[in-house]
Amino acid sequence: MDRKEHHRTRMLVQYSDDLVDGTCSIHCLALSLGVNVDREPKMIWGPDFGATAEPRPLVPVDKLTYLVGADMKHVMTKKSKHSFASADVAKEFQAKHGGTLGNFDEALKQSYLGMSEDVTQIRKNRAERRKKMMMEQKHG
Prior knowledge:
Layout: E1 11-15, E2 20-23, H1 26-35, E3 41-47, E4 58-60, E5 65-68, E6 81-84, H2 87-97, E7 100-102, H3 104-113, H4 115-139
Antiparallel strand pairs: 1-2, 1-3, 3-4, 5-6, 5-7
């Protein structure tokens, strides 16, 4: 996971046995939590999408407000799930981009509900990138 590229969407989980997993998105965090089902998450952090600092600061997820389903592109998922340290800033984005406000548990639930569709789209995107690279190599 490229922290610089995914600083607006990255997540970090520390499990009770101190395993740490950094992911590019809440989609991949959901995968980590599923694969590590026997590990208890000790702490989970998400980005403050509303911050202007780069990289975006990580905040404990229980302090974040999530904007789910806004018309903003997100990583690894069709249904966006952006997190904000300020509920007021989240409401400003909601006024501009739609979506519904919720907490981390709701955003994670939406990640699991969209997993099949998201994985299908990811596979399609990767196949298209491979095809494009093969064409460039063939003609390069």
